[in-house]
Amino acid sequence: MNSHENVDFDVSLALSVAEGAARSAGALLREAYWKPRQVMDKGVNDLVTESDRASEQMIVRVLHATFPMMSIVGEEGAHITGSDPFTWWIDPLDGTFNFVHSVPRFSVSIACVDASGEVLAGAVYDPMFNECFLASKGAGATRNGVPIVVSQAARLRDSLAASGFPADLRTTDNNTQEWAAFVPRCQGMCRMGSAALDLCYVAAGRFDLYWEYGLATWDMAAGVLIAREAGGSVTYYTGQPFDVIKSGGLLSSNGRVHAEALEVFEAVRQGSQ
After folding, report:
1. Last residue of a domain, which of 147, 170, 199?
2. Enclosing domain of residue 72
3. Predicted confidence (pLDDT) at residue 187 exceeds the cutoff of 90
4. What gap in Å lies between CA 58 and CA 75, rounded to an integer?
5. Residue of 150, 270, 266 whose CA lies nearest to 210
6. What distance in Å separates the CA atoms of residue 56 and residue 47, rounded to the nearest whole number?
7. Left if phi > 0, otherwise alpha if psi is -120 to 50, otherwise beta: which for 95?
8. Residue 161 has what pLDDT?
C-alpha cells in the first residue's frame, strides 16, 4: 500500500497549488532577469543569487499556507518537517548559471513526493517562454494545458540528445566520457543547463533522450514524473528503476532508444566506447 492511501491527499489541489506557486515564482524571476543582480558562491562553481532565495521563499509561503502538515525541502535551505507523509521538493531557479549570464533558459521545479519516494505531482515552469509542464501520477502530462507525449525516434542516429555537466568538472564523474561516446551516435547534442527543462523536453518530444549524473531530488523529481507520464522511460545508467530520493546517474528517453542508450553506458563502463 502506498503511504498516501492512508492520508487524505487531494492530488488535483496539490498540482493546482504547485502550478500557481511555480508561475508566481517564475514571474519574480522574469522581472529580476532584466535587472542587475548580486551573485554569490555556495561552493566550487556553485552560484546563487538573491532571486534564487526570493523565489524559494515565495514558493514555501504558498505551499505551507495550503499544506501546513507537509514537509518542505528547498535547494536554498528551506527545511520544514511536517507530520504528513509527503514532502515538497523545490528548485526555485533550476539553471542559475544561465540566469547569471543572462541566458533565458531556466525554470522553477516543484514536486510532491510520498514517503516511499513516489512522485505524486510535479510542476516545471519556464518563465521566459511561459511554458508550464504539469503531471500527476497516472493522469498524463501537459504543457500549458495541452497533453504531451514523447517522440517516435527509434534509433540514436535519429535522436537529439541532451545532457549536463557538474559544476566542478574536475570531479571523477564529470560526464566527459559519456558525452564523447554519444556524440558520434546521435543526430545532435544539446546542453541546456536546466535538468528540469531537459526532462520536460523529453516529455514533449523535443529531445529523444537526456542523461545526467549527480542531480538532487529537487532538480529532477517533477521532471521525472512529467517524462514518465508522457510515455517516457526513466532509469539509472544501468537500466535499473530510478529512485528520485537516492538519485544517481539518470537516463530518460522516449523508451524506443533506451536500450541502445544503455549499451553506450555499458561500453563506457567497460572502456570500449
Report:
1. 147
2. 3-147
3. yes
4. 13
5. 150
6. 15
7. left
8. 98
Number of domains forming the structure of the chain = 2
Q: How far apart are CA 55 and CA 22, in angstroms?
A: 9
What is the amino acid identity at position 199?
L
pLDDT band at 266 (very low <50, low <70, confident <90, very high): very high
Three-state SS for 93? strand
DSSP string, 174-236: -SHHHHHHHGGGSSEEE--S-HHHHHHHHHTTS-SEEEESS--HHHHHHHHHHHHHTT-EEEE
Instruction: Give the span between the Cα atoms of 230 and 146, in whole angstroms.
Output: 11
Encode pLDDT of 41-85 as tens digits.
655 445 557 888 899 999 999 999 999 999 999 998 899 999 999
- Asked if residue 210 and residue 92 are part of one domain, the reply reads no
Report the C-alpha dihedral over residues 89, 148, 190, 119, rounded to 10 degrees.
Answer: 20
For 45, the grid coordinates are 562553481
**Range 116-142 average pLDDT:** 97
Q: How far apart are CA 120 and CA 75, in angstroms?
A: 19
Nearest to 187 by CA among 156, 212, 151: 156
Sheet-wide strand order for 119-126: 79-80, 71-74, 86-94, 107-114, 119-126, 131-136, 141-143, 146-147
Are residues 143 and 163 both part of a single domain? Answer: no
Angle at 213 between CA 205 and CA 217, to 5 degrees: 80
Cα within 13 Å of Cα(174), Cβ side: 7
Give the phi and the psi of residue 163 in degrees, each rounded to 5.
-155, -175
- Is residue 79 within a helix (H) or strand (E), and if so which, with residue range? strand 79-80
Write the CB contacts of 150 (distance below 8 Å, at least 6 apart in sequence). 202, 203, 205, 227, 230, 231, 232, 253, 254, 255
